[in-house]
Every structure is written in structure tokens, then in C-alpha cells.
Amino acid sequence: MFKILKYSFYDLIRSRWSYVYFLFYLLLGFVLLFLNNDVSKAIITLMNVIIILVPLISTIFGIMYFYNSKEFTELLLAQPVKRSSIFLGQYLGVAGSLTLSLVLGLGIPFVLYGLFKSDAIFDFSLLLVTGAFLTLIFTVLAFNIALSNENKIKGFGYAVLLWLFMAVIYDGLFLMSLIIFKQYPLDSFSLGATIFNPIDLSRTLILLKLDISALLGYTGAVFKKFFGTDQGLFVSIFMLIFWTVLPIWRLVFVSRKKDF
Amino acid sequence: MIHIENLQKKFGKNIVLSDLDLIIEKPGVFAILGPNGSGKTTLIKSVLGMVVPDKGNISVMGKPIKKNFKYRKKIDYLPQIANFPGNLKVYELIRMIKDLRQSPSDEERLIQLFKLEPFLDKKLSTLSGGTKQKVNIVMAFMFNSPLLILDEPTTGLDPASLIHLKNLIREQKEMNKTVLITSHIMQFVAEVSDIIVYLLEGNIYFKGSIEELKTKTGQTDLEHAIAAIAIEPAHV
């Protein structure tokens, strides 16, 4: 697996898109710090960008890479290499290079600005960790979609729909159900609904760590009680891991039975 | 070498292989022939483990290939369409495959033979179809595996390279290897192969030497014999 990972990774870090992605974050980091002049505020703005952009880029990058490396995959399938290693290696190569772009692109400006001297270092690391998780999750979801759809156009469509659902539609449905069922106690429902969408989960996790939950009113207090504790943090991280591992398992399972 | 029992494969409703049995025991060059869509490539890909059969058993070198991948180290494969990752250079691709297989290889001689030196530094996406096929051939022949599978090896080759290819196949035969070839060019098949395996509608219709085929069909050349075989009412 590590050889496949190595080749996929080298292939990707030589590609122009990885640099564009990296430079985008680098620029974003510098501009935000320059405009806000404050690490904590920059983190809040960054969160809003990351929570939407990381899933989008990961999904599209993942699906494009999978379809584009069809030849590479077929070549590897005839070699003495395990099927699961081929797909896991490629997946980790894509997710790894995207994560590297994110961490370096944002890390460099913040470190230069004096991150290590500020007390926002924990918040910033949490931001990067959730960003990394979102990359891992949405890349593997994209790989799953690509594996199940031979038709590129269809696969691409499903992938974009998935992102749209998770990033936009889910929140809309969530909000609507809150309005419709407002007579009922909704604390545990909203907690549950938040946990089942990795994007919402990451957003809530960061918001509450940033101590601006007072803005969220009563529900915010319930959330704070849950996410603010160590237990809440563990449950959230566990859910993010679950969101990563389950699709990876499916990827391995489905790839074992596929014909090429 | 290769034992195939009751092999069955469907793609949707389309039955490609139905209860196919094939035993290839001794070394030599085996030509797998058949009309378009008779299941040649599916058969080959099943042996390679790229296609997962619905039913049946395949063993290569005495070991079942299910849940096994190491046996592919004993097989060199030349795919039908030379599809390579386009952003790699030729020498990078060769180095990568060598790194993956970790077996001794003699690519230098083959690169010289097919005059590929000027292309080593070029990206695979910029190569012509014939040159890609030459790279394909180099990669299939550079390892010393006991089993070779060549799917349409002649596609796009110029006459000089075709002669080199034939010589290479003869060389493998002299080294007591087993070579499976599919081709639609009967002249090529007649020159290199010992045994003909004829597939029709997902099953083996004929297996035997070229001479046997000619006597059976009453034809004097292979091309006509193959064309006549499917019309022949009596079969094996």
C-alpha cells in the first residue's frame, strides 16, 4: 500500500492543482490576518471558509482523481498488489496531499504572525484537525461514489449533490424541522441532527470552543454543555472518525467485488 | 499451469462465459481465438483476477487465485489497450513497475530492440499509439515470469517491431514458458502458436493444434479454417 501511496502522492504534489489549492490557503491566511489583525477573529472567518470549501474541494478532487487514474488503476490491478492496497493507497495519496496543502497553506501565515505566542493555538489546531477530517471524509465519500458509478457525468453529479446536501440542504431541512416542531423539546433532536452531518458537527465543535456560544441562546447552552466538555469533544472526534472509517470500509468491500 | 473449472461470468443479463473448463498444463504458445464478444478478454481478465467470476474455480500454478494476489508475480500481462497514466514519463513508469514487482528485469535490451531510447524522457500522453504499444510490450516482456498473457499484442505495430515481437514470443517458447495470446490476425497466430483454443458463445468450441483444426474443417489455411469452424455442425 505504501508504494501506491507514494506514487499517488508524488503524482499529486507535482500537479498544478495542489499548488493552486496551497497558494489559495496561503493567500487567504495572510489576507485574513492582515485585515483582522487578530488571530481569534481570523480563525472564526477561516472556519466559515473551511467548513464549506474543504468538503467541496475534497469531493471534486477525489472524484476527478479517481476517474483520471483509471488507467493507473488498471495497470496496478495486473500487478502483484492487493486490491485494497491499490484503492487505499490512492485515497490516502489524494487526502494526504489535500491535507498537506491545507495545513501548510494556513499554518505558514499563522505561525509567521505569532501563533505560538497567542492563546488561540488550541483553537487553531482544532480548526486544522477538523479541516483534515473533513478532507478525509469527503475524499472517501467521493471515491465511493466514483467506484459505484462507471458513468463519469453521473458520478460527478452525485458528488456535487452530496456536497450541496451536506453543506446547504441539510441545514435547511434541519431549520425547517425546528420551526415545524417548535412546540416540542428539540434539544436532543438538534444535538443528534448536528452529529449526523460532519459539516455541522465540525462547525458546532469549533464555534463552541471559540466561546461565542452565548450568542446561540438556550440551545447554545445545551450544546455548550455537551460539546464544551471533554466528553463532548471525544464524542465529536469519535463521530468524525466514524464518518471516515465507515466509507473506507465500504470502499475496500466494494472494490473487492468489482470487475475491471 | 492454469486450471479453470466451471467458470461463469455474467455482465448484467449478458452471459459472457458459461461453464467454461480449460486446462493448460504444458508450456507452449496458446492462441485464444474467437469472434468479437466471445469472452476472450473476460477469460484472460478472470485469470488475472481483474474480473471476479460469478461461479467456478481458477488455479494458477496449483494455487487457487481467490483471495490471493501474489500469484500475479508469476504472470506478465500485456493489456489490449495500452492505457497508461498520462502524466508519467516512460522511464518513470518502467521504474515504478519494477519497484512494485521487485523482480529482476532486462528492460535495457528490450528498449534497445524497439528503439525506445528517444522516448524515455517523454510523457506517456504524448506518445503515438504504436509507441505506446512498444512500451506495453517492453513492460510485459521485461520480467522473467513463467506465464505470459498477451491480449492483442500486434495492435499498431510497424513491420519491424512485429518481427521483433514474434522473435520474443519464440524466445519465450524456447525458455519453456506458457504464453497465452489473443489476436485477430491469423497469419500471426499461425506463425507463433502451437495450440488453438477457440471460444464461441462463452464456451470452448475447439482445442487442438493448427493441423488438427485444418483436418477437421478440411481447409488448407488457418484463416479459412477459423472462419469455417463456427459453421461446422459437428464439434468436439
What does this structure look like?
The complex is a heterodimer of chains A (260) and B (236). By secondary structure, chain A is mostly helical. Chain A has one domain (2-257). In chain A, 84% of the residues lie in helices and 0% in strands. Chain A contains eleven helices and no strands. In chain A, helix 2 (16-36) packs antiparallel against helix 3, helix 3 (39-68) packs antiparallel against helix 5 and helix 3 runs parallel beside helix 6. The longest helix of chain A has 31 residues, at 83-113. The model of chain A has no long low-confidence stretch (mean pLDDT 86). Chain B has 236 residues and is of the alpha/beta class. Chain B has one domain: P-loop containing nucleotide triphosphate hydrolases (Rossmann fold), CATH 3.40.50. Chain B has helices at residues 40-48, 90-101, 107-113, 129-141, 159-174, 186-192, 210-217, 222-229; strands at residues 2-11, 14-24, 28-33, 55-60, 63-64, 75-78, 147-151, 178-182, 195-200, 203-209. Chain B has a six-stranded mixed sheet with strand order 6-7-8-3-9-10, with helices on both faces. A four-stranded antiparallel sheet of chain B has the order 2-1-4-5, covered by helices on one side. In chain B, strand 7 (147-151), helix 5 and strand 8 (178-182) form a beta-alpha-beta unit. In chain B, helix 7 crosses helix 8 (222-229). Chain B is globular. The mean pLDDT of chain B is 87.
Total strand segments of chain B: 10
- Number of separate helices of chain A: 11
Content-based structural category of chain A: mainly alpha
Unreliable sequence segments of chain A: none
Largest interface, counted with CB-CB under 8 A? A-B, 24 and 26 residues
| pLDDT averaged over residues of chain B | 87
* Distance, first to last CA of chain B: 23 Å
Strand content of chain B: 25-35%
Strand content of chain A: under 5%
Shape of chain A: globular
CATH architecture of chain B: 3-Layer(aba) Sandwich
Coarse morphology of chain B: globular
Q: What structural category characterises the helix and strand content of chain B?
A: alpha/beta
Distance between the termini of chain A: 19 Å
Protein name (chain A): Cu-processing system permease protein
Organism (chain A): Maribacter ulvicola
Transmembrane segments (chain A): 20-36, 42-67, 88-112, 124-147, 159-181, 233-253
Keywords (chain A): Membrane, Transmembrane, Transmembrane helix
